[in-house]
Amino acid sequence: AGIRTSVKTLLESDEKPEPVTLTVFRDPRVAAARILPLFSKAAEEGAVSFSLTVSEADRESADLAITARIADGTSPRNRVASVPWVLTASPGLIRRTGVHFSRIPVIFLQADRAMLKSLELAGKTARTHFVPDMETGIMLAKSGAGIFFGADPGVIEREIRRNELTVVPFFKGIELQIAAEANPAARKLIPELRSLFEEYGKGCGGEN
Fold first, then answer.
1. What is the pLDDT along the chain (208 residues), one digit of tens a residue?
2. Within 10 A of 168 (CB to CB), how many other CB atoms are there?
3. Staple 81 to which of 6, 42, 134, 178, CB 3.0 to 4.6 Å?
């Protein structure tokens, strides 16, 4: 019946109900920081417990599956948001090397291996690192290991303010289309997920 119903039951009853357990599939292109606020308050109140997975094997059985893909001019079914797709790197690395992919390593998500060919970067980069998720890519970019392809500007706002990361101009107009599929018990979460993407990270500096 969704998180809000569970929270209401918890508050109005003397008996503490069993938490609603949700399994959430998160596409590696979607930052965990985007979706954790949706569950954290209810989890603190004991109304829901949840587990996040990025395993494709768990995608079909998940209560809520959040997927992402590069926009191709069409909108996916049950789209909840469009997120800019940006390149990011440490300012020190860019000062030392400039944006020359023949001299600078690049960091890609495992899920985006095919993007190397479509961007005509295959064989033209100093080195390519493949990482399992966005958090690892951001961490490597902060350390100066290379330019990370595919950061979410809404979750690197703090690093940009601290001058730990900078957005690297490369191309404009590329977005991730975020979609969500849910079973009936979790379907009420989709409007909340859409609101979360609309409200979180507004006003982040930098242009892709």
1. 344 444 444 444 455 556 678 889 999 888 888 888 887 776 777 767 788 888 888 888 899 999 988 877 677 888 998 888 888 999 998 888 877 767 788 898 888 877 766 666 656 666 888 998 889 999 999 999 999 988 888 889 889 999 999 998 776 667 888 999 998 878 888 998 998 888 754 544 333 3
2. 20
3. 178
Q: Identify which of 84, 78, 75 has the alpha carbon closest to the alpha carbon of residue 34.
A: 84
pTM for the structure as a whole: 0.74
DSSP 32-56: HHHHHHHHHHHHHTTSEEEEEE--G
Cα(206)–Cα(195) distance, integer angstroms: 22
Coil, strand, or helix at residue 128?
strand
